[in-house]
Design a protein that fits this description.
Region (Disordered): 1-43, 294-331
Order of helices and strands: HHHHHEEEEEEEEEEEHE
CATH class of the largest domain: Mainly Beta
CATH superfamily of the largest domain: Galactose-binding domain-like
Number of domains: 2
Transmembrane segments: 96-117
Biased composition (Low complexity): 316-328
Number of helices: 6
Mean pLDDT: 73
Largest sheet: 7 strands, antiparallel
Helix content: 10-25%
Structural class: alpha+beta
Biased composition (Polar residues): 1-10
Keywords: Membrane, Transmembrane, Transmembrane helix
Shape: rod-shaped
């Protein structure tokens, strides 16, 4: 070996000596060796041992031996190439896959259970509110559907009196329109002939039952003062009796006065005098007071005072106003002498009324 090699190799020698001393070659057995391999290993071991001795003694080592030693330092791969390193995350991945599969299966099972068994808490029922009754819709009847108002008709009644002192005729004649009979009432003896007689009227449920008393709603009435014929061609006795002129009607329902007194001035009309009451009156009986009578005029009167087509009379004057305004009855008339008539004329002994009617209907 040359001087330059010697000077350049101390570092190499030192490295090799340190390498051989500290570490030494790592020889890994790969399995049972053959005789040739074992002999080769022995030769290599002897060579390494000799090199170790030489290095330790400081002797020069040829380059060819250095190369061989270097080659011996590297392990000889006598086995097949090692398998590729496995993935360290493979287990975690497999665990995640299993966990994901379990979660999916659990969710599917829960959904299936809900669908089959209706799982979950029972639904809370909606609060029940008491139904509010809708306002009843009342159909308004058309005019053609409205019930016809009850028609007034002559109400049957039973008349009676104790004021005529056995008069010539009965007041029942007032209810008969089939003949010319009339109610003729005596005014008393000549020295005490006065007016003020009272006629009691009781309304009947049926004409054939005088004992039955009923209440009716009255709207109007009619009076035929004096003796006039009620049938065509009947006998006229107009000039033979006095004529009721001022009448007062007191309506009662039972024992209670049903309305204010109603006054009527016939004006001594020769014929029927209709009158409309001041309002509807519910009554079961009436007291008719003959407040004033007068002698009949020679010629028949043309009509009632101010009576219109409906028979309604305007407010009266004179004697009627005095009686209605003050509540006092007019003074009785003892004598009512007309020109050409004597004070003791027989006409003054009686008065006559041909017909009396009350128009109304049942309250039911």
């Amino acid at each position: 070996m040359t001087e330059s090699a010697t000077s350049a190799d101390p570092s190499m020698q030192d490295w090799l000596a340190e390498h051989l001393t500290d570490e030494g070659p790592s020889i890994v057995g790969a399995g049972p060796q053959t005789d040739a391999e074992a002999a080769a290993d022995d030769d290599a071991g002897e060579t390494l041992h000799q090199l170790h001795v030489d290095v330790a003694a400081g002797s020069d080592i040829p380059d060819s031996q250095l190369l061989s030693v270097t080659d011996l330092d590297e392990p000889t791969d006598t086995t097949a190439a090692p398998a590729a390193p496995s993935d360290v995350n493979a287990g975690a991945k497999r665990t995640l896959v299993w966990l994901g599969s379990g979660v999916a299966l659990t969710a599917a099972a829960i959904v299936l259970a809900f669908l089959v068994f209706g799982g979950g808490p029972a639904p809370v029922p909606a609060p029940q509110h008491s139904p509010v009754a809708a306002p009843a819709v009342v159909a308004v009847p058309t005019p053609s559907e409205l019930p016809a108002p009850p028609q007034d008709q002559a109400v049957p009644f039973d008349p009676s009196t104790i004021s005529c002192l056995g008069g010539p005729t009965s007041p029942l004649a007032l209810t008969d329109s089939t003949n010319d009979s009339a109610w003729v009432c005596s005014r008393g003896p000549q020295e005490s002939r006065i007016d003020g007689q009272i006629l009691h009227v009781k309304f009947l449920c049926d004409r054939s039952r005088p004992e039955s008393a009923c209440s009716y709603i009255f709207n109007s009435l009619s009076v035929t003062p004096g003796c006039v014929p009620k049938t065509p061609g009947g006998k006229d006795e107009w000039l033979e009796h006095r004529v009721p002129k001022i009448l007062q009607f007191n309506f009662y329902n039972g024992d209670q006065l049903a309305a204010d007194p109603f006054f009527l001035d016939t004006k001594s009309v020769h014929g029927q005098v209709p009158a409309t009451l001041s309002g509807k009156i519910l009554a079961s009986r009436v007291d008719v007071m003959i407040l004033h009578t007068e002698r009949p005029t020679p010629g028949p009167a043309t009509g009632a005072r101010g009576a219109g087509p409906d028979g309604v009379l305007p407010p009266s004057s004179g004697l009627l106003d005095s009686a209605a305004g003050s509540g006092d009855l007019p003074p009785p008339v003892l004598f009512d002498t007309a020109p050409g008539q004597l004070a003791n004329d027989p006409v003054d002994a009686t008065f006559c009324m041909s017909q009396l009617q009350f128009f109304g209907h049942s309250p039911n």
